[in-house]
Amino acid sequence: MSNINKTDFSCLTCGISENGTKQAIDQKSQQMLNLIDQVKALPDDEMEKIEQLNSQIEILKSQLNELKTVKFMDFLPQMEAVSSTKLAKLRQALKQAETPEERQSIQTQINIQQGHISYLNAVHADSCICNKCAIEMLNSDGFISPDELGLVKSETSTAPEGQVASLENLPYAEEICDFISSYVIGQDHIKPFVSGKVAMHYRSLFVANDSGDMDDFVQQNILMIGPTGVGKTELIRRIRKFMSQKLGCVPIHTVSANKLTAEGYVGASVSDIPNALVHKAFQYATSIDKLEGEEALARAVQYVHQSICHLDEIDKICGPRNTTGPDVGGEKVQQALLTLIEGEEVSVDIAIGPMQKATVQIDTSKILFITTGAFMSQSGGKSIYEIMDERMAQESQGNEKAGGLLGKATPKSDVASTCIDGSKYDVQMTDLVKYGMIPELAGRQPNVVCLSSLSQYEISRIVTEPKNARLPKQISGIIKAYGIHITLSEGMEALINDKTGEEHQVNEVVASIAKHATKLGTGARAINGIVGRIITPMESYPRKLSNCKVQLVPESLDDPYQSLVFEKGSDEGVTLAEYLKEEIAKVGAPKVETDEPKSEENDSK
To answer: Helix, strand, coil % (nearest 5) of the chain?
Structure first.
């Protein structure tokens, strides 16, 4: 391993530097002191100005806390130890492999392990990489998880070490919105709304906890409606991550409502949800907070009372169902969820030590419930959009008084999952009830939002813009480990329209990925599969392509081996198919899966 003796470290991935961080801390500290002086100089009757300055001070305080937690990669010894164990197992498996395909697959895994070590050693010696970026890269494809390195806790957590956060640590809605916007493209009509509800939920919860009076606390449960691949799950993941940075630990439990069954039947039940949250929180309290026994259990209960429960596919337990048999997963599950969401004291048994068990009481009214679903037509019923269109058409004719918070009445529209404009819809409780949700459950989800389908332009932005964008992450992470320099075709751009019809110029490869993903109809979910196919040759033949430049072209989407390869120092490129023809002849080209939907002609055969 390289020994480093530098006065300043800078992260190759995000660009943050040690000296730059110190300068930023000094600058923001001075800004905060100046604002405090301004507050002291203002008369007491200037309350509005004082509140504005105090808000700015809180934001600066949060930014300072994050800057002070920046650390540079200091876990190479642990990483190499874990990797050595994995490599030994893989090499043993390679010896026992029976087929060429199996050997090729194992050898690729070995190359990835060795490549990650080489890459991180290189950047550590050359410039450095901060812990946060290194952990994200390691965990991007399951190379080494943060758990294995003992780095489970977020590097940017601003919660006091070993303590549960207080009201002072809670973020404002604008901070939450800014954070999720750096990961979630589009849905601008609902991000501020959702951020505000999440911020209000936690702020009112902590106020109630401090005062000891829960009568004024109201859950801000959220229901997100939208087709697949538009960002519902990503929004929840980023909300949870940001709140964990502020509160130290925000356990989350995601469960598909479609898999829940009524009590007494085989399968997961609603009562398993608080049980799972308690066990996750207890594990955090013991492994991260280093607490034991009753003390760890008390901390776990505090964590559960600031947790998030994500109920996915909530629409699958609503709507028309087969009534010929017992109602195993329909209205009975809705009734059970209602009891949980309304708030009840739940007893959970947990082992807190060898031969030592305990029972804790959980108040589920403190948990933030976020439910999601597509709410498209099923079993011959109408989609939620058709139901809303009918209601809004009646309202526009004056049969009912139109109203709502987030939308307005519109004429009947196309409800295909690829052309939904969520900003035009204002979901009301009567719509949910008509779809099949029981009134009581609909009423316990007061904050309902409709997400929009993603346009081709938004998908093209998702390919490259978010902090966790698949294409640059794949290029800067795995591929650089092999010394392969990947570029996009240069100087060639395509025009893509956004939802308003305005044209935007984007790289032609990115445009092709966006158009292909739109064609598949699964939104952003299609991007991972498309990018994974494009880089198949580089993952399969890294030794041959080491130190080469590979240029992705639009044709790479149909055939990854049409990408162009340039040897070091050469300006003449050939296709990967031509460059790798000898290697392909030896073992054959790896099978490249396709996401193309089957045609009706093929389906009928």
So the answer is: 50, 10, 35
Question: d(Cα 384, Cα 415) in Å, to the nearest integer?
Answer: 9
Q: Which of 479, 526, 488 is closest to 506 using CA atoms?
A: 488
Type of residue at 420: I
Chain position carrying tokens 């630990």: 249
Mean pLDDT (the chain) is 76
Three-state DSSP class for residue 364: helix
Phi/psi-derived region of residue 111, left when phi > 0, alpha when psi is between -120 and 50, beta in every other case: alpha
Distance CA(597)–CA(17), nearest Å, equals 47
The dihedral built from the CA positions of residue 35, 37, 39 and 42, taken in this order, carries a sign that is negative
Quick one: how many helices (H) and strands (E) in the chain? 24, 13
The sign one gets for the Cα dihedral 445, 449, 453, 456 is negative
- Provide the token pair at 270: 């609603």
User: What tokens appear for 416 in the block?
Assistant: 């295909």
Instruction: Assign domain 167-381 one CATH number from 3.30.70.60, 3.40.50.300, 3.30.2350.10, 3.40.50.620.
Output: 3.40.50.300
Other beta carbons within 10 Å of 493: 14
Contact criterion met (CB below 8 Å) for 452 and 186:
yes
Q: Are 292 and 358 in contact (CB under 8 A)?
A: no
Locate the DSSP E strands across 188-229. Answer: 222-225
Confidence of residue 37 (pLDDT cuts 50, 70, 90): confident
CATH of domain 456-587: 1.10.8.60
- Token readout for 212 is 């000891």
Alpha carbon of 54 to those of 36, 37, 59, 201, 202: distances in Å? 8, 11, 9, 21, 19
How far apart are the C-alpha atoms of 566 and 574, rounded to whole Å? 7
Residue 367 has pLDDT above 90, yes or no: yes
- Reference 429, options 438, 420, 417; nearest CA is 438
Could you count the other beta carbons within 10 Å of the beta carbon of residue 522?
A: 19
Which range of 85-99, 132-146, 439-453, 576-590 scores highest in mean pLDDT? It is 439-453
**Distance (Å, rounded) from C-alpha 260 to C-alpha 262?**
7
